[in-house]
Amino acid sequence: MYRFRVTNNLPDHKPFVVYFSLFAVCYSLFLTSILTQFICVVCSAICGYVSWRWYKKSHPQQGVFILDSTQCRFENNTLKINGHISNKSRVYQDSVWLYINGFASSHWLIINASGVDELSFVRLKRITLVARREHEESK
Fold first, then answer.
1. What DSSP assignment string belongs to 71-99?
2. Interval 36-53: pLDDT, tens
3. Who contacts 85 (Cβ-Cβ below 8 Å, separation ≥6)?
4. pLDDT digits (tens, 9 = 90+) for 51-66
5. DSSP 8-class letter at 70
6. SS3 sequence of 103-138
7. How far apart are CA 134 and CA 131, in angstroms?
8. Among candidates 5, 11, 112, which has minimal Cα distance to 57?
9. What is the DSSP secondary-structure string of 49-64?
10. Largest CA distance in the chain
């Protein structure tokens, strides 16, 4: 069993701004009417805002993470997640996107490398990859 504290796990807004801005501008260039261009920009802004809210909700700023093989538990003031790491989880260079299958529901949990110490982040990545491999072998 391994336990570590997540602190200052701040979400990065830059990819969302770049993606939805480029989408709105590039797509609206092919539209001929000013009204349709305006509608395209507004729809892109709404989609970006909804995506940002989901991303921020899945990105807790602080808490305690407890790992035991493929079982995990995360707790902070507002959120308590208990379950096992699913095959949908993803490991990136600077973040780990955990899809945790709980008893009643499933949750996404995003942990940045800047939110934990280096050794804990490496262990989290390793356990996520092991959980994915075990899930694939069990099929």
1. EEEEE-SS-EEEEEE-TT-EE-SSEEEEE
2. 888 888 888 888 888 888
3. 70, 71, 72, 98, 99, 100, 127, 128, 131, 132
4. 888 888 888 889 998 8
5. T
6. CCCEEEEEEEHHHCCHHHHHHHHHHHHHHHHHHHHH
7. 5
8. 11
9. HHHHHHHHHTS-SSEE
10. 60
